[in-house]
Every structure is written in C-alpha cells, then in structure tokens.
User: Which sequence fits this backbone?
C-alpha cells in the first residue's frame, strides 16, 4: 500500500511539500476487497466481518516515514492556532525502532497499524453521512457547539469532485461527476470503521466490522509505523507505505447479534475491536493533565476536547525545557506511543484529560528532579541545527538556551 | 480517611440512600497538611511539592465499597439521560480483588488511588475559579457550547453555605458565612490538582503539585478501590474509606522550572503526575468505539465528550447481551479498570473515542464468536435476582431472557 | 510475623551479627493454622487447601530489611567459594520501593512475598524426608553427583535438638528430645511447599497446598520484601518482619483430582501456584548467560546449577564495572527483581542458564555502549565509603578505580 | 534460512521422519558473515559485535513449523526416559499466532527468535572445547556428576566427519577430513553464543558477541517461531524456516571493557543479551514446582536440572487431566511461551525450579477449581483422534476417559 498521500511527501529536509500539499486527494487506499466465505458466498448486509491483522510493516527497502504539521491555511491540526506553520520530521526505521534526525535523542518502538480500515457504506448510510455533515458545515458556529480555537479548520469534508479517486470509473464523465458528488470523503471515522486511528491495532488484533453492502467491500490504508493517541498534528502518525496481511471471517447475522444501533436507524452502529497481547511494554510514564478551561481562561462545560488540548499543550511546554523546540515536541507527541485518556468526565464544569508519555523513549531523564535525590545528570548537548525548514525558509533549531 | 460521603451510603440492599443523598456536603477530605522541608521551612508559593504515594488501602475491618448511579434530579452522571434512576452496587474486597453480589460473574484487581489530592488555592486563584465558573452557570446554554444531552446536570458547583465544611470555623457566624460564599467546591479538578480522578495514581506514583499558599496546605480524600477512566456514573469508582501514606518533598522554585502557565496569569498551570511500575497486567482487551455523532444522529464537531459517551453506550449495550442489565454494566464500566482513550481528535468532523475493557474480569468469554472457531461455551446461568433496588422499589434483575 | 531470624540481625553498620549468627535456630515461623471449612469441618489428608494471598507488607513502623552474605564457615551461599566473608546491606522501604545506603544508585519496587508457606507433613512423609536427606549427608560426595564447588556447605539440614523450636512442648523433656530428633528442618522446600522462595507469590496469588494431616496445619513466615530468582546469597532476599492476610478454601479430594504423585508413594507430590496479575512492569532487561562449564574450565553434563552459577558470576563481574564492588552486586542480585531462567537443558553437554536484570533499577545506563550511539553519560560518582563491615573489620568500599 | 534440519521434516501426519532423522547433519546454518565497520575495517579479536535483531519471521508462503519428540535411541530429549517414542506436532501460523491440529484447544502468540547465533571460535578456543567435551564423553559417569536419568543420551557431540557441512571445502579430501575432525558441532551453546536458545531474543533485542577471529564470522539459524524455556523435548521449539534482518555494530576492544573471563584463559567468556520491550503480555500464570528429588525418590544435592525435570513432569501430568495425552503436553511445554525459573538454589539439599504457564493459551480454564466458586464450565469435548503417528504406527489419541 502507498502512504496516505501516495508519495507526495519526500524524504528530504524541506517542509515545502507539506506546505503545498493538495489535501483534496487523500486518502489513497487499497481495496475494495470483496469478502467471501469458504463456500464462495459473499458477506451480506447484517453480517459482521472479523478481520484479523496477521502481519504488517513497512515495504522492504522503503523503511522510512514522516510526521508533519500542516499549515493553518492548508489542513491545520489540533493545535493549529499555536503552530500555524508547516513542519516535517523524517523517521528512519531500524526493525521495531524509529528515530528522526529532526528530533534527536528520541528512539522508540513502533506499534504499527493501519490508520484506516472499513467497509463500504450502503446508499442509505451514505445519505445519512452527507446530510449530517453538510448540516455542520452549513450552520457551523451558529447552531453547533464548536470550539472556537478549532474553528479555523474545515468543519467537515464533504463529497467533492476535486481530487476524487473513483477506481475504474472514467474521469469527468457524468457518472464520475455524479458519484464524486455523493461519495463520502475518508477523513473522519464513521459507522463503517474508516479512519479510526486506534494506535493499538497491530499484529494479532481483530476488527469486527459491520457489513452494509454485499461483499462488505473492505478498504484499508493510511499505514502508520507509530501513532500517539489523538494523532494531534493531523499528519501526526509516522506515515509510511507498507504491507498488510489480513485474515477475514464472516459472522453471519453478526450485526444483530453483537451490535446495538445507537441512533434513529439500524445503521447507527460502530465496529468492535479486539486488541492482541503484543505491544511494547513501558515501565514508567510521565502524565500531563488538562482541564476544560481554554488558554484564554474561559471555562467550558465538561468538554474533553478542550481538556485534551490543554494536556497536550502542557506536555509540549514541559518537554521543550529539555533542549527541544515546541514544534519538535508537537511532532513527537503526535507519533510516539503516548496515551491520551479521558480521566474525569462527570465533575462539572471540568473535564479532566491526561496525556501519558513513556519516559524510556528519551535518552535523558525527563522527570522533575527533587533537590535531594537527583537521578542522574541532565544530558547536556550542543544545540543541533536541524535541516528541516518550515514556512518557506526558517530552520527549526533546538533552543540554544536550553540545557 | 472517610469515604467521600462520610458514611452516608450503607452496605445494604437498597438504593434509597443514593436517591436521597445530600450532595451539597461532599467531598469529605483529610487535611489541610502543612508541608515543611527538613529544616522546618514551609513550602512557598512558586514551589512544587512532590507527593509520592507510599501505601494505601481500605481500612482494616472495613473492606467494602460502593458504586452508584445518582438519580437524574440529584446529581446524575455522564449517561443520566439514559439512566435516570438511582442504583447501587456493593463491592467486597478480597486482597487486591473486588466482587459484587449485584454484578455476579465479575471479579477484578483494583488499582487503588485517591480521587482527590490537591493544594490550597491562593485568594487570587480562587477568584479566577469563581468568576469563570459563575460565568458558565449564568450564561449556560446561550453562549457556551454545551452538549444538550448533558445539560440536565448542574453546570457548575459554585460556593455555597449549604452543606459547607469549614474545619474549625464556627458555623453560622459572619466569618463562616463569608468564607462559605467564596470557598471553592471540590467537585471539579482544577489548577491545584483536586478531583482529577486519575485511576493509575496508585502505589509508587508521584504527584508534582504547584504551591499557591505558604505550607501548600495539601488535602486529599475520595479514596477509590478502583475506577474506570472517566468515572462515568459520577459516583462511579468503588468508593471507600481508607488510609493513605504519603512522602512529600519540596522542589524550591519548581513551578517556574517545570510548569508553564497556560492562560492569562502565572497561576494557570496544571500538576504533573508520574505513574509507577506496578499495576495489574491484562493480556487482552475488547475495545468499543464512539464517534461524535449523538444518539439523535446529530453531528458534532470534533467533540470528544460526545464520542466518549457513544463509546460507553456501545460497550454497555454489547455487554448487556451476556446476561446483564444495562444498569449493571453502567455501574461496572464506571469502576472496573477500563481505559478511555481519545483515539482521533483531528479528522473533522468526527472525534473518535474508545473504551477498552480487559476481558479477564469476566468469568465468561465476552468476545464475539466466529461461527467456525468457538472459544468455549458461553456461560449459562440461571437468572439471579439482585437485592439492590432503585427508584424506590424495583429490583435490578439479570435479564432472564439472556443466555 | 518476625523475620526468619526473629530479630537477630540489626539495622546497623556492622556485619558481625551475620558472621556470628546461630543458624540452627531458623526459620522462625507463624503457625500452625488449623484450616476448617464453613461448617467447621477440618481439611483432611487428600484435600488441597487453596491459600490466596490477600494482603501483606512490612510491619508499620518497622519498614526496613536486610540482605546478607553468610561466612563460608557459617552457612555460606551459592557463591561461597567466591565470597567467603560475611557482609550485610540494610534496605529502607518507601512504599513499594527499597533503597540501601550500602548499594547507592539503586532503587527498585519490591514484589513482597512469604519465602515459606506450607502444610505439616504426616509421619510417613516425615520419614521419607529424613531417610533421603540422611542418605545424601552420609554418602555425600562418594555416591552422589555433588558439585564440588558447592560442597563446603552442609549437604543437608537434618533434624537436631540444637536450636529447635517446638511450640508448647516443654523443652528438654524426653518428648521434646524425641520430637526434635525427627522433626524436619525448614531449610529446603519439599512436597508440602515450605521454603519454595518463589519471588512472584505476592498479592492476588494463590497456592494450592496438599494436605497430609487433619487440619492441614499451615505454617508460614520468612517474609521477603523482594527477592531475585535463586536467592543466591542464601540470606538473599530483603528479609523483614511483616504481616500477611490469607484466605483459605478447602478443595475436598483435591490431591487426587489435581496432583500426580511423582515417586514411589502417593505422597510424592508438589504444590501448584497461581500468579496474579499485579507485579512491577519492566521494559528492558540485560541478560547474562552461563553454560555448564565451571570456573576451572571443566565440562559438566547438562548441569543447570553450574550454568546458573556462571550466569550469576558473569552478571556480578559486569555490573562491578559501573562503580560497585563485587560483594555489593552479589547482594543486589540476591534481592532485586531479577529473573533466573533455564534457557536450554537439552543440548549436550551444555546447559544454558540466564539471569535477566531490569535495567531501570539503576540510576545510570548499564548497557554496553556502541562507539557511535552513546545513550547518555555514564554516571561519575565520587567513590563512597560504605559503613557496613565484613569479616570483622574491613569496610566495603565502592571500588575507587571504577568509572 | 532453512530450518535446522534443512527440510528433513515434513508437514504431514506421520512421525516417521522424526524417528529416522539423521541428526549428524544438524544444524544447517546461514553464514559465516564477515563484519566490517563503516570504513571497511573488519571486527578483530577482542572486539564485541552488537547484533540487533531488526526483523524476522517465517518465509512468506511457508508459514508452518513443527515440534517433535525424538526417539530415545536417536537423540532423545530432557524427558526421554518418560517419552521414549518419536512424536510430532505440526503448527500453522496465523500472523503472530500458532495452532496445531495435533494439540487442539491451544493457540498462542509466538516470540520468534533464532535459536543459534554466534561468532566463529579461534583455533585456541576450539581446542579448549574439544578437549573438555572429549573428557566428559570419555570419562562419563565415572568421574562426572551425571544425572543417571539423563545418561541414555549422548554425553557430548564431538567433531566427526559424519554428516559434516564445510561450505566450499571439497568433500572427502584430506583437508575436508582434517577440518571435520576438529570443527565443533553446533549442538551446545558455548563461549561464542551459538545454540543458546534464549526464547526472548525477538525483534528489538541486541546480542553482544565476543570476536575471536578477524571479521567475527557470524553464523545464525535454527529459527524458532516460539519456544518454552529449556526447549525440553530437544526438537522442542516450533522449528521453521525463516528470514532474519540484523544490524551489526562493532565495539572496539569491547571484550576487555565489558566481559570478564571466567576460567583459565581470557577466552572463557559469555555473550551478553539485551531484551527489547516487545513481547506478548500475559496476565495470569499457573506455576508448577519441582524439587531436586528424582522420580525414584532419591535426593540430589541442589541440582537444578533434576528440580526442573520434576517441575516439567508435574506440569505435564496436571495438564493431561484436561483432555490431553502426556505426549501432547510434553510437545506443548517445549514450544509454548512458558517460563522455566530457578527459584531456590541455596536451601540444601533441595533446589527448587518452577515452570510457569500462561493460562490464556488454552481455550478452557485450566486452573484448579474450588468447590464454591467455579469459574466456568470445564470444556467437554468429544475425544479427538489425532492423525500424527509415532513409533511406527500408534496414533496419539486424546485420552477418551478425560473430560
């Protein structure tokens, strides 16, 4: 499988490709795969397909990936109001480990997974999606509870002929035009799975996907060498090309047996995931907290998105004290194996979200030091000058005043 | 330490105490503790106190706790629109394990922790709190992005003389009245820590708390034998009385060195937490997903609270297929060691949240079964009749039609 | 429970108590406990008792322990030919963690457990023990395959009136004398459990013990704050006084249902253990290997004891390169959470044993460094002079030439 | 890399190939690989090579392996006196999982690793090996401490022209004959690493190997999909063909810096291993114990090999109560991710060894049941008839009398 941009982003030291990327063309996926049982009978609406991830990894000879911050005017990300400029880190893989010349002093094992895996929607489900997403885009801030700090980003990603991929349908014919205007974009995760970005879906995991059309028409892609919970910088995983081996089984009538619709139609369901026993063990975690009070000091009511934003910002600020720029840490927290948790969601008016970072990914001790029991010398490093540029021409530098 | 209600909830088979509880009196805490260094010099504003949790547990001879759903008209919870009636489960402890007669077939190790630990605010910080929380309560739905499905609950918990505890201050004097009208309620977590409900803060964890007043004036309480991320039913942990042994160190000037203000004043900070290496290992997890489309089918914009609500509802519905009522599962997911994650927060318009449940806490295999490879017989149990009542007089029964 | 020496070893800076200890008096145990079912009917021969460890820990106010090397002439240990002199390290506990002034730069979480837990033998089983152990002591090197490097230690610990504890039996009466001459010493683990020293038997573990006499007569003691596999220095765990809460259930007829005799009589059985889900997680381990070739270069045939001895010696030598004396590391590997494994036992003539040490217990990076990718500065510490003395008067010093 | 027998064992339902295999030809390895640094300068005696395992797995399209018991007269195994007949189980791989038609009801994730990895010995080291191993074979039972229960197996595997592989050396020339008579056989692990069978050497692990000849001449092979500690049945791992990606670095002078000779020459060293953070997590373990009393009731002195044999026998007997034959369980304990520990090695006269088995690999609850709290129904299965034959013509059957 190609990476989500089909090779638009290069292994070089410029973020210009990130700044100028045409996001209307993503995601490039593999599929659809028609799923049959051993007797050749296809999956049918109402079935579940149990998809086990048998093996996956980067393509041999192509063992690298990238994490990027999009420009605020072209995609943005969770913290786009704080990090408006394009930036990019290249990661190289050594077996299970990744390291980046742009973020020295960090090396971690990846929990490789597909960012996207899903079945095809039926026409009825497609209409539901298009209607509700058009509504949020149309009425936007007025009638919806939008977080202002996020509102410079597109409110939805509606069907559009621009940049559309339609397989064997001949481009610019009336049929192509019709389909392009109703086919869902793959940016958000939905009832069919899709871009769920669950970072633990690695070897041995199993995904129970609802079937909406005959054959299920499974598509997958957006391979991630590693991702942090939330994928905060949007192009936030270590994006890569890769391979994926799946084993599919059909559970006849499984939707009714295992899923419960949660909405006005029987189609309002969500897939179920089973996480396997293999993932990197970490011993110690440093945890940053955020509450649902935004950076202006304004109180939000039990808003986990605002709380998580604060937790991420707190973590970035803290880590930047150890010789890094904030851009570097924003990139790192998007792709390293950090965990984003909803810790408290009931204690009005504050939601509490936490971001837990395994301390072992750093080559220095990043924990606060008590005055009496230092746990080792802080690493003193001459400030590196990174080659990656952003916003056209500014080099990212490790803050020279940091120890 | 007493439990958060100071013994209001009884080890019996009626939920009447839950239904009628006066929530204006919670939380009952221990403290404030004045923190000095080895030379007797107190912690000062701008310092951090590093609080290590050395030991903790239930009080000997009092090894039980409770999880409850509050009535919608008296406290409610995350899913109060789905579960409006009071309910209660009693948990008994056998060493590290808890089990409940109200939720048979479940037994799990607890990750015991204090729900609340925090320092005292300065007057300046108190004013910030009171102002911003009053604002949300006053302007409420009009100017804030409130999730309607949550709005039947109180929007904030403002200072009030009703049910107020003020230590040695003589009740109903002018001084008592003045303080009661400005002292913050302990319901939400805030800049000082407080009710952060981080379920992993068990033995060996360390909490770095900012100091706002001389001596730090540490308070703690709200002991939890176990809690799930989010503590969704509000009285959602296994609430208990207990003991707590702490070791405190002062990091002089630590606020400036380690914390970064995130807001209009230097007081807009959050504590940092360090999770220790000891917690229950689980091998396999079943993961439920939610997206930010609510139960009416309405689209919300990257709203992690809505997505998490959907994930919890999906989990409850799924688990209720295994011989449980939905109330039982709502209670269970509030207090068992389940993890609530923000998986995707950038793919407009859908936030994706997940709830991961360790399969080992059940005495039956709760995974979906493929038709060809059954992993063992589903447990067939005669329907139990539980003694716990809710809404006055209805018994909770395990659904007799379930297998 | 008192520690295994009933307080003979002091929290001081001299190893004289270790050098002069009268080992004929150990172990001091608690019990016997008569086990009844809910109807008051005692456990009977042929039953199993399932003993769950509910809670345990040091005694409040007495949070310290010790690890020691016995003098070669008085007990010795696994490496007594390499470490002939008495030595002692004191450990202090901070919640789950232990640290020692004698071994600075090390701090680790303990996996607290009873070293000894067992049921009483029947007369028939006692006779089997006494006969086979007398045989090894009598015939010793001639007819048995004894490892010469171990043979300066006692070959067995036979019944003897010297230092004997017999509960309420009046000392120095004929009855006392008779019993003392046939009652088994508690040094080795046997069919009844006893001194099995399984380091993972902590909270939530369950032990299935065979019952040989009515009531089972359970005894326990020898509390360990932490132990490494093998407990190599003999007084090798962090020995402490402590408390232990057990829950016992009787499995009627369980010996026949679950255990299989492995020897000439139905009594030749061994207990079964169930390890719970709670123990310290470690991320990275450094592993030392030994093969069954002894220090003189002599080949032994698939001898796992020799191989493990080599693995431990290799680890001690390696770690002593990081600023420690070999005695310090021998003490440490006896008590820290290291794992001793039988990796290969079939590839004639070499058994392969391994010793795995979690790297996180040190405050410096103890891994070998490749020339190109240093992982951080090696900790340079001024050589400490330790106060603990051994062999009468020599101070243990950290090797000044190290680092 | 081919499997250790170069394809001699077939994916079929007969154990005849196992019974008749010519073991003089194993192991088939890949190499030697000459290791250079970035400037093209080879590794030199006295250096260490740090070999990181980047990736490994079965060969695409060849995803199967086997575990076997050798006939007592042809190789045998750790329990050859109990299991004298040849037997074989075929395992099929589904991603990280393996399952076997011969051992139904079991499925587990593999921790894939090379059984053999080592550098070439110098002539001096080769002479040391040949001398000491010849000594044990010649003098055998008389002067060595051989465990009689093991002595029907070959005492050593000395150089021999029979079945010898010598790369490009022309077969049956005088040079070939000379080399074949002095070149070490690869059965045992030795100072150079070799057949160390450390089951955790999977992705992300690093091996520090001593260099004895210029270029190091690294060889590797004997790929295992999974192995239990001890690899007890000798052909005990899940043996397979596979691929292996390594990254090598040279640590100049590393032998002196990191290894300590343990014997009469500087060559008496052992490699060091670093285990990575990725391996299957298991939550609960059932642990079987053995003491150094053999099956005849005879006492051995602190003999960990005898103790481990007892532990394995106890586990086999216990597990066979759940519907399996003992041969099936002997095969399973050779290859599943079980841990063999040396728990006590100092309490004369009994060594205590333990074998810990993760309970999750079975599709039924294998724990002992207390009478009052059953954890679920025991799986009742109609007795399967397995197709694999042993000793010429006897089918292995699951014991029909077992439940």
Assistant:
């Amino acid at each position: 499988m190609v990476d989500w941009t089909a090779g638009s982003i290069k292994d070089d030291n410029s973020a210009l490709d990130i700044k100028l990327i045409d996001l209307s063309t993503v995601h490039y996926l593999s599929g659809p795969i028609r799923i049959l049982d051993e007797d050749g009978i296809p999956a049918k609406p109402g079935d579940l397909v149990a998809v086990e991830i048998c093996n996956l990894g980067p393509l041999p000879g192509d063992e690298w990936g990238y994490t990027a911050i999009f420009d605020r005017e072209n995609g943005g990300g969770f913290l786009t109001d704080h990090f408006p400029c394009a930036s990019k880190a290249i990661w190289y893989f050594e077996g299970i480990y990744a390291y980046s010349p742009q973020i020295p002093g960090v090396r971690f094992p990846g929990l490789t997974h597909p960012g996207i895996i899903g079945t095809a929607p039926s026409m009825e489900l497609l209409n539901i999606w298009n209607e509700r997403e058009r509504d949020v885009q149309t009425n936007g801030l007025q009638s919806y509870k939008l977080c202002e700090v996020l509102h410079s980003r597109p409110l939805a990603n509606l069907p559009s002929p621009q940049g559309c991929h339609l397989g064997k349908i001949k481009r610019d014919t009336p049929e192509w035009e019709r389909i392009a205007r109703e086919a869902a974009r793959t940016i958000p995760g939905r009832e069919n799975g899709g871009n769920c970005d669950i970072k633990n879906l690695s070897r041995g995991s199993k995904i129970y996907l609802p079937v909406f059309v005959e054959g299920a028409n499974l598509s997958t892609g957006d391979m991630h060498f590693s991702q942090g919970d939330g994928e905060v910088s949007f192009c936030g995983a270590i994006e890569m090309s890769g391979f994926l081996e799946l084993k599919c089984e059909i559970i006849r009538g499984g939707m009714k047996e295992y899923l419960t619709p949660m909405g006005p139609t029987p189609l309002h369901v969500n897939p179920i995931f089973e996480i396997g026993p293999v993932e990197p063990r970490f011993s110690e975690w440093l945890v940053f907290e955020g509450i649902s009070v935004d950076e202006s000091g304004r109180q939000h009511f039990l808003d986990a998105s605002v709380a998580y934003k604060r937790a991420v910002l707190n973590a970035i600020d803290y880590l930047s004290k150890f010789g890094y720029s904030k851009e570097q840490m924003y990139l790192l927290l998007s792709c390293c194996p950090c965990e984003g948790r909803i810790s408290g969601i009931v204690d009005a008016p504050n939601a509490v979200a936490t971001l837990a970072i395994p301390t072992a990914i750093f080559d220095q001790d990043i924990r606060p030091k008590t005055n009496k029991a230092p746990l080792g010398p802080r690493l003193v490093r001459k400030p590196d000058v990174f080659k990656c540029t952003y916003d056209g021409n500014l080099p990212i530098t490790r803050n020279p005043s940091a120890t």
